Amino acid sequence: MKALDAIADVGRDRRTGGYRRFAWSDADLELREWFAGEAAARSMELTEDGNGNQVAWWQPALSVGRGASAASDRDPGVSIGDSSLAPASTTGAGGGSDPTVGRGASAASDRDPGVSIGDSSLAPASTTGAGGGSDPTVGRGASAASDRDPSALLLGSHLDSVPDGGAYDGPLGVVSAFAAVDRLRAEGFVPSRPIAVACFADEEGARFGVACAGSRLAAGTLAPDRALALRDVDGDTLADVLRSRGRDPYAVGRAGWLDRIGTFVELHVEQGRALVHSGDAVGVSSAIWPHGRWRLDLRGRADHAGTTPMGDRCDPMPVYARTVLAATEAATRRDARATFGKLRVHPGGANAIPSAVAAWLDARAADDATLERLVAEITDAAREAGDQAGIGIDVTAESTTPTVTFDPALTDRLARLLDAPVLPTGAGHDAGVLSATIPTTMLFVRNPTGVSHSPDEHAEDADCDAGVAALADVVRDLA
């Protein structure tokens, strides 16, 4: 099965090779159908909560007894990668070895952290939406039972992308989860707990501006009212878009199926070069740097580009430019990250001085205090430049995420199991959202370019296969 081949053209820009798979777009709906088909092909029960998160459940005890062969006719030697997805060049960006990379530092108990192994014959329960009623969950296969053990092992990731994103960020985790199930079934392995494969909705936040919206809504950390009021670039709210797709906006909100999850392991392509430097195909993540998105609104005065002397202008663009330079200097000095990757200029004419500029700052750092100081320095620099030029500035924190430390016992257990290095990441993930209430960690697959959120994002076939093997080992160990 080459599942990445099946979705290689979905949402792909023929000119750049990048992907535009935004929440509830036509490409997103096509990917949802693909996920449903993969679940059906494996006779896995498919559920979907009101937030759009899809989950496929492997519950072999519903159809086979313990010890019985659960082998399928699928090839256990899955090849995930495909040359058609690889960039023309795999030359990576520069950078030294990450000194924070280590291997399972301390021995942990072999007991599964936070996991109660019980009856293996469970199905997902119904979930509760924003309105408090029964979640309109779509079920296929065996019917859910209310008295089943909630301790399922969750795998998976997401399928949406940033603008002009890569082929592996998200999809590799979903495809690898299905491939690990195939491998284990072919070996005759029967888990003692349910295995769930998730596809989380709107992880990137490219359309509505809030990352990990699907998992945040499901976990109850994003208020439904706030989510439904979010607008895309066309001015459509999430509520509008859901209605246009035949969905009930009032079904969004906390999802009860998460209460059935005992452990979450998310596999993801590495978004950096730590594994290149360490020489490993697979690593285990220890933490996610604190990060957030801030919107800066700069207000000036529109005027004619040709007739207005430079000294008479009230132009927000030079203030924005000074802010970008200040952010670059401040982040470099702190070994942090600061990016202005999204900009809106009004009215947007080449011969018109802008009246308004909206810019989005993405900031990340190794710890919460450093991030706080970084953002304060950048916004102070923006306001100082604005005061000097007569430009009004408003700063709005759209989303912030503190440091996420993955379950130490689980992380160390998997690092020892896989003999894999342990490394932090500066990228946000659904795993970071769920880790607040569920024992969670991540596996990373080596990215030879170190590039992500770009068509140049890549992972070699052999490393993808190593990721599948590692994920299968994890399931075998935890289930």
TrEMBL record:
A GO MF term: hydrolase activity, acting on carbon-nitrogen (but not peptide) bonds, in linear amidines
Residue segments, region Disordered: 67-147
SUPFAM superfamilies: Bacterial exopeptidase dimerisation domain, Zn-dependent exopeptidases
UniProt keyword Hydrolase, yes or no: yes
Keyword terms of this UniProt record: Hydrolase
NCBIfam families, per database record: hydantase, PRK09290.1-4
Similarity comment text for this entry: Belongs to the peptidase M20 family.
Official protein name in the record: N-carbamoyl-L-amino-acid hydrolase
Organism encoding this protein: Mumia flava
